[in-house]
Amino acid sequence: MAIVKPFRGLRPPKALVEQVQSRPYDVLDSEEARTEAGDNEKSLYHIIKPEIDFPVGTSEYDERVYARAAENFARFQQEGWLVQDDAEMYYIYAQTMNGKTQYGLVVGAAVSDYMNGFIKKHELTRRDKEEDRMRHVRVNDANMEPVFFAYPDNAVLDALVARYTQGEPEYDFVAPGDGFRHQFWTISETADIETVTAEFGKIPYLYIADGHHRSAAAALVGAEKAAQNPAHKGDEEYNYFMAVCFPASQLTILDYNRVISDLNGLTQEQLIEALSVHFNVEYKGTEPYRPQKKHEFSMYLPGKWYSLELKPGLCDDSDPVASLDVSISSKLILDDILDIKDLRSSKRIDFVGGLRGLNELSRRVDSGEMQMALALYPVCMQEIMDIADSGNIMPPKATWFEPKLRSGLVVHKLS
Q1: Is the same domain home to 177 and 318?
Q2: Which of 1, 26, 78, 340 has the most crowded CB, counting CB atoms within 10 A?
Q3: Residue 376 CB-density burial (10 A; 0-12 exposed, 13-18 middle, 19+ buried)
């Protein structure tokens, strides 16, 4: 059963939240962060992307950069740009995209649940990326950014959240760039806090939707601190890390598409002939064509859109991994025909999140940068949960969750 606890969040005053908040550290590079921060000294980028305080080209892994993160975090607290709540509480974080709102509960998730497999993963992590985030957690003694979890729908939690969100939010703003609305409430009533804790205690598993490296880093640092503390009791704040937990049914997963730089020596006609072995190939015209169902793909060649529908009997839908469209396209198109074996390392392929639209695929092909684009039907949350439950791992570049969590609305200190 899931163990969660309330915590004393460190948050910006209402009047400053739009200056403090930022995009997550891993969705933009150093120069984008430098540009977005501009002359705003209150931007969280000075803590989560502190290389922007150094000359252009300074490595984000430089020891001075980590030290600057801690200096800036201390300054934010001294200046009152981040202020700690007086009491432990849970929080509600709502995101609205294209008229649809999803409501997440911000909790302290248990390190032990991560270590014991009650917080389930669907992606592999890289040790170098884990270590980077571990260094950041260590130097700040805090989880600066939340991870993104899903949980099976719970009617009691839904009702509690609905009651709170009828009231005035602590924060309510539209983020620059993505144009999505972000709202935030506090749950401070003792009975409601106890209800949240108890209801999560009835949920068998939590699922990482986004933030596998942050989850691993936070849990590993928590375990590290426990091992280093001779007086460890188990109720210390470092035994928990910050997560925003959303009901699985509310989440939006967009398509995560591919653009390919060459056709592996094939002409367009030869490519279509090769595809026809496993797919019913149909020309769809010059306007963007989006896959309409699972096992249907869209292909774009200069000026032409095609549908590729997998022929019957070529997929075992009882296999949660092999039946994914990312698996099918990787095996039957990218590997067998185009000789792209490793999606993580190949320089011949790039990936485009669905928020950017199908026009971005045609733009990159028509520009001459790429020769082919492949659009996929998005996976659903149930597929992710089934794979996590089976102990398997999703193929690379399979999921694109949107909207992304904004950072800086609340911070979790480990002591």
Answers
A1: no
A2: 340
A3: buried
Question: What single-letter amino acid sits at 207?
Answer: Y
Q: What percent of the chain clears pLDDT 90, i.e. is strictly above it?
A: 88
Give the Cα-Cα-Cα angle 25, 179, 374 (nearest 5 degrees): 75
Residue 23 lies in a domain: yes
Q: Read off the amino acid at residue 283.
A: Y
Domain count, the chain: 2
365 within 8 A of 373, measured Cβ to Cβ: yes
Cβ proximity of 73 and 144 under 8 Å: yes
Q: What is the pTM of this model?
A: 0.90
Question: Is the bond preceding residue 55 a cis peptide, omega within 30 degrees?
Answer: no
Do 242 and 274 have their domain in common?
no
Report the alpha-carbon distance of residue 344 to residue 68 in Å, rounded.
31
By residue range, what is the domain housing residue 342?
256-377
Residue 16: closest CA among 40, 34, 36: 40
Amino acid letter for position 233 = K
Whether residue 397 has pLDDT greater than 90:
no
Distances (CA, A) of 220 to 31, 125, 205: 29, 13, 19
Nearest of 205, 208, 204, 239 to residue 221 by alpha carbon: 239
pLDDT band, residue 124 (cuts 50/70/90): confident
- Chain CA centroid to CA 50, Å: 21
| pLDDT (tens digit per residue) in 331-362 | 999 999 999 998 888 999 999 988 888 999 99
The DSSP bridge partners found for residue 187 are: 90
DSSP state of 194: H
Largest CA distance in the chain: 70
What does the alpha-carbon distance between residue 354 and residue 400 come to, in Å, rounded to a whole number?
Answer: 7
Cβ contact 105:90 at 8 Å: yes
Convert the pLDDT of each residue in 26-49 to its tens digit: 888 999 999 999 999 999 999 999
Q: In residues, how long is the chain?
A: 415
Confidence of residue 177 (pLDDT cuts 50, 70, 90): confident
- Cα separation, 197 vs 285, whole angstroms: 54
